[in-house]
Task: inverse folding
């Protein structure tokens, strides 16, 4: 009996180890159709003389893509993909999410008012490539499915390197965007890799290469998403090129909430949280509605009404547990205010509401850097001050709080809240300098 | 004597040969220049200075660029432009302009990189070598050398003139105040919410503009243009944009109008059509395409040239049979006021270091009834140094160029001048200035 228990325990342990191992061979790149699409508006139909057609307009065809190999041209209208009619970009993405590179597919286009039918083979999504950074597309197995990990490291690296793990914000978006490497997180991590760090972008479940193979992002609970990051970090720690005693998490926005939670399950040396939450969720919402009002250029009267109504709607949703539609029956404006929460699951949002945010940080024993951009109207400066006070209370001297000049929530160069809302500039390179200086200090 | 005759005959054949050889060499030079540019991977044109500075490469890459442009400058010195045809002379001067401009850029960028690559927000006032940088941005957009003081003075003058004109319209229509006039103009009857009616209104303007085209720029067949709603336009989207058939997926020449809020201001219809379509960008693009631009023109972007033209034509609204009623004219004045205010904001923010508060104060003191776009405009001017100059300074240049030629040759027609300017295509305004008179003389000789 005892032996049997030992055997089954060994089996469980083996399964866990397998589950947490990197699985670079198991997760293929997603398919690359290689077009820029836009909805086929009524005006566009009228100009093109195709009033009865439902489809998606092909606005650009990328070179060396599936579409260009198949002879697609700008101005084509995609009406069917894999025999499924498509009339919106969402429908196209839905068809693509289940496809594998190398597989055949059928399509129907309209060109010059004539239907063109054809077959083609999906090519793989491109990868980022730099002369001075080495890229690796690996993955891990998590409880909700495979998780893509995009690794960047110095070209000439030897031995074990400190690891930086990047966890993104609340939205369901991909961190794997080889066509847009100007994104702040990519710029930041690339700078860190050039300075000797191995950096890992953890793709959200259900997004990018994970799509169709793991639980869709919109259906996850907060803890499920958090556990997926834990599994990936554990797997990364086992790599021969990673110094498992020098692991840092950069948590951007909601990633800054995941970071201390993840660290409770797998030890990290430090956390860098940028534009995160530090007070209970309702308080956070109320505070940031005021800065959002400023970004939207609302007058004082509009601002006060906005905050009051938003808080009332939030109370229906989070306290009374009503759905958005039920809350809208009480006050129609709630539909506008609460619809953003419906982009994530009810469980996810309920967990956000239930967290004690300083409590999440109170057990963290490592070093922390809290960053807030002075033009960040989505997160609050006060929340970062609360977290700093929390850390000083439980582990004095472990945490720095720095306000990043001329930076917004997305780490872009900006001159104010309204500029951040309307015209964010490119990545604020000052973020890299602050992070690098802090990491050097933390490493010494 | 025989020997002398042979020499004369030889020379006679040699001159066209030299000309043909020089032309061929220049063509080769243009091709190797544009191909070389692509290999240098110079970042794409952008108006946003923050993006511009961030894309500046490291010193080694800038050194490569410096060597490249210096080499072409030296190569150009070996040519004798006297032997060129009129069109080759223009291309030659265009390339010379580009090499000189690019070398100035590289020098500034090298100094900025060496200084630590600092990018400040709220304009380029806080930059190392800010005055040189602002002059560079002025030149990048307009190709002209104009001082910030002159920009400020011109902007202030225009703001005063236009406000006075608006006030005259107010008085003429019997309103006691601007507030009263704008309350009246806010009535639904001054707006269109049915897109079919908007298209019909643009169609009427199209007919009137095409009727005047022959005297305006010659007997031309300009392709049809299709107005359409700007998909996804918001409060911060400009009033319109022109996209010729090579720039869109519809296969037709279109201009998109901002229908955000689904309430279209009738006062915008005439001037917007003139600016984006005929005789603005659509006429300009159509004539340019007919004249097969060389590879250098295809790769050049001079906003002072194309926006300057589209702004210039608005001043001829009445002459074209448009803007006949006071409120259509007012609609244009309102937008011209915004463009003029941008000049003051430009020089104020980038040269004089105006704060956002000071910029807002200027707006509130000088622009009536357009508070909702104040922040958008101030942010745009802050982030896009020089861009706002393209319209009014470009238009002023074109207007003065034509006035100068008219003074020189009173018999020259407006149509000939317009057509000559448009067929010169995407060239720096300074290059156009040098060669415009010669091209017009050729027309007169042919005429």
Result:
């Amino acid at each position: 009996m005892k032996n049997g228990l030992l055997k089954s325990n060994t089996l469980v342990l083996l399964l866990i180890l397998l589950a947490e191992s990197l699985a670079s061979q198991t997760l293929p790149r997603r398919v690359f159709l290689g077009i820029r699409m836009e909805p086929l508006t009524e005006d566009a139909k009228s100009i093109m003389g195709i009033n009865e057609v439902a489809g998606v307009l092909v606005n650009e065809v990328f070179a060396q893509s599936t579409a260009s190999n198949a002879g697609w041209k700008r101005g084509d209208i995609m009406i069917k993909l894999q025999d499924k009619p498509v009339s919106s970009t969402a429908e196209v993405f839905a068809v693509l999410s289940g496809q594998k590179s190398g597989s055949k597919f059928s399509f129907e286009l309209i060109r010059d008012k004539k239907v063109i039918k054809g077959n083609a083979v999906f090519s793989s999504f491109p990868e980022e490539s730099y002369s001075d950074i080495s890229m690796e597309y690996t993955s891990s197995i998590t409880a909700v499915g495979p998780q893509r990990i995009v690794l960047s490291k110095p070209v000439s690296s030897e031995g074990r390197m400190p690891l930086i793990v990047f966890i993104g914000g609340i939205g369901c978006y991909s961190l794997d965007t080889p066509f847009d490497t100007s994104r702040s997180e990519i710029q930041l991590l690339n700078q860190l890799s050039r300075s000797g760090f191995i950096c890992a972008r953890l793709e959200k479940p259900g997004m990018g290469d994970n799509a169709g193979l793991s639980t869709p992002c919109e259906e996850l609970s907060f803890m499920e998403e958090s556990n997926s990051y834990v599994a990936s970090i554990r797997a990364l720690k086992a790599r021969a090129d990673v110094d498992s005693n020098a692991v840092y998490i950069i948590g951007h926005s909601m990633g800054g909430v995941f970071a201390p939670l993840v660290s409770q399950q797998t030890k990290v040396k430090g956390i860098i949280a940028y534009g995160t939450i530090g007070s209970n969720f309702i308080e956070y919402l109320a505070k940031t509605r005021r800065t959002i009002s400023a970004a939207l250029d609302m007058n004082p009267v509009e601002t006060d009404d906005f905050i009051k109504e938003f808080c009332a709607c939030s109370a229906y949703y989070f306290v009374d547990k009503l759905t958005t539609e039920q809350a809208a029956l009480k006050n129609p404006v709630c539909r506008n205010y609460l619809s953003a929460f419906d982009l994530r699951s009810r469980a996810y949002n309920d967990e956000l509401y239930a967290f004690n945010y300083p409590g999440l940080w109170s057990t963290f024993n490592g070093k922390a850097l809290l960053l807030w951009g002075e033009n960040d109207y989505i997160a609050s400066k006060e929340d970062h001050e609360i977290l700093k006070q929390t850390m000083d209370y439980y582990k004095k001297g472990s945490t720095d709080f720095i306000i990043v000049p001329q930076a917004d929530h997305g780490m872009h160069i900006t001159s104010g809240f309204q500029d951040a809302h309307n015209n964010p500039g490119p990545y604020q390179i000052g973020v890299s300098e602050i992070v690098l200086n802090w990491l050097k200090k933390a490493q010494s | 004597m025989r020997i002398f005759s042979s020499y004369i005959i030889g020379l006679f054949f040699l001159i066209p040969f030299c000309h043909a050889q020089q032309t061929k060499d220049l063509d080769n030079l243009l091709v190797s220049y544009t191909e070389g540019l692509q290999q240098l991977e110079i970042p794409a044109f952008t108006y946003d200075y923050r993006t511009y500075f961030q894309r500046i490469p490291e010193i080694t890459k800038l050194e490569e660029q410096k060597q490249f442009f210096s080499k072409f400058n030296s190569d150009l010195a070996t040519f004798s432009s006297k032997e060129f045809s009129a069109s080759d002379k223009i291309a030659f001067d265009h390339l010379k302009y580009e090499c000189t401009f690019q070398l100035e850029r590289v020098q500034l960028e090298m100094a900025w990189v060496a200084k630590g690559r600092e990018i400040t927000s709220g304009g380029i006032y806080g930059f190392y070598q800010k005055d040189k940088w602002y002059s560079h941005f002025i030149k990048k957009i307009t190709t002209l050398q104009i001082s910030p003081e002159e920009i400020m003075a011109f902007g202030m003058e225009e703001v005063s003139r236009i406000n006075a004109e608006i006030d005259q319209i107010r008085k003429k229509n019997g309103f006691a105040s601007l507030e009263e006039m704008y309350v009246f103009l806010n009535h639904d009857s001054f707006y269109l919410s049915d897109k079919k009616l908007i298209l019909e209104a643009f169609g009427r303007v199209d007919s009137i503009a095409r009727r005047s085209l022959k005297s305006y720029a010659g007997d031309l067949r300009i392709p049809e243009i299709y107005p359409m709603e700007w998909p996804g336009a918001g409060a911060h989207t400009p009033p319109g944009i022109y996209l010729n058939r090579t720039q869109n997926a519809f296969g037709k020449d279109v201009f998109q109008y901002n229908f955000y809020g689904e309430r279209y201001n009738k006062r915008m219809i005439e001037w917007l059509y003139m600016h984006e379509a005929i005789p603005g960008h659509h006429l300009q693009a159509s004539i340019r395409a007919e004249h097969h631009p060389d590879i250098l023109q295809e790769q050049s972007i001079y906003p002072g040239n194309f926006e300057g033209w589209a702004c210039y034509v608005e001043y001829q609204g009445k002459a074209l049979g448009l803007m006949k009623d006071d409120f259509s004219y007012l609609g244009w004045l309102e937008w011209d006021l915004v463009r003029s205010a941008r000049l003051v904001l430009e020089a104020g923010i980038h040269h004089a270091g105006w704060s956002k508060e000071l910029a807002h104060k200027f707006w509130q003191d000088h622009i009536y009834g357009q508070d909702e776009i104040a922040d958008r405009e101030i942010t745009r001017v802050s982030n896009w140094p020089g861009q706002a100059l393209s319209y009014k300074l470009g238009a002023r240049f074109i207007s003065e160029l034509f006035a100068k030629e008219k003074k020189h040759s009173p018999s020259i027609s407006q149509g000939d001048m317009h057509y000559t300017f448009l067929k010169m295509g995407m060239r720096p305004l300074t290059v156009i200035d040098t060669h415009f008179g010669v091209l017009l003389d050729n027309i007169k000789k042919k005429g």
Summary: Chain A touches chain B through 29 residues (CB under 8 Å). The longest strand of chain A covers residues 242-252. The longest helix of chain A spans residues 300-319. Residues 26 and 139 of chain A are 8 Å apart (CA to CA).
